[in-house]
Write a structure and sequence with these properties.
Elements: H1 18-31, H2 39-43, H3 49-60, H4 71-84, H5 88-93, H6 100-117, E1 133-137, E2 155-159
Antiparallel strand pairs: 1-2
The protein binds a DNA duplex (21 and 21 nucleotides) through helix 3 and helix 6.
Subunit structure: Can form complexes with MYC2, MYC3 or MYC4.
GO molecular function: transcription cis-regulatory region binding
Keywords: DNA-binding, Nucleus, Repeat, Transcription, Transcription regulation
Length: about 160
DNA sequence: AACCAGTGCAACCGCTTCTTT
DNA sequence: TAAAGAAGCGGTTGCACTGGT
């Protein structure tokens, strides 16, 4: 049996306070990311490492865009989702300043509905092929330097002209 | 003004993958 | 090569906020 990542009784849960945010970002600015397991103790936080990592990546990390997605971003998410499926971290990697959590939330709350309204089943990405998109072999078009660990796809999406 | 349903976002949970020994 | 530990990821949940009645 694996130990839990943290002792639940000794950790705070729920929303982060300003003080906690400050401690976390101060610590990371000083020491850099890494070793999330030991970070909370070192930073003086009563949080588990997972929680710290998530908070940093999704909220505190510099360069994050907040607010609405632009049309171009929306379009790119749809295309990448058609190509990659629910691989949110890969999709987010193509959207500067966006996080996997943000992309996932946006997909689930906005884009899925939008596609359904358009008569597209979001679970069947290849239907997009009939809506002005073709999936072709080869990568260069969208400048996708996807580095997939297991099944590296050799496909990309290109706009039908 | 009060209630309720719908929505969006932040955070948690548990599984998978990667790394180290 | 296998096992254990750490990190990463995606699914899901909880709650605050908003708009409609």
């Amino acid at each position: 049996m694996r130990k839990p990542c943290c002792e639940k009784k000794e950790t705070n849960r729920g929303s982060w306070s300003q003080e906690e945010d400050q401690k976390l970002s101060d610590y990371i600015k000083q020491h850099g990311e890494g070793c999330w397991r030991s970070l909370p103790k070192a930073a003086g936080l009563r949080r588990c490492g997972k929680s710290c990592r998530l908070r940093w990546i999704n909220y505190l990390r510099p360069g994050l865009k907040r607010g609405n997605f632009g049309e171009d971003e929306e379009d790119l998410i749809i295309r990448l989702h058609a190509l990659l499926g629910n691989r949110w971290s890969l999709i987010a990697g193509r959207l500067p300043g966006r996080t996997d959590n943000e992309v996932k939330n946006y997909w689930n709350s906005h884009l899925r509905k939008k596609l359904i309204q358009m008569g597209i089943d979001p679970k069947k990405p290849h239907q997009l092929g009939g809506k002005g998109l073709h999936i072709k072999t080869c990568l260069p078009d969208l400048n996708l330097d996807l580095t997939l660990s297991n099944t590296a796809p050799s496909t990309t999406l290109v706009e039908e002209s």
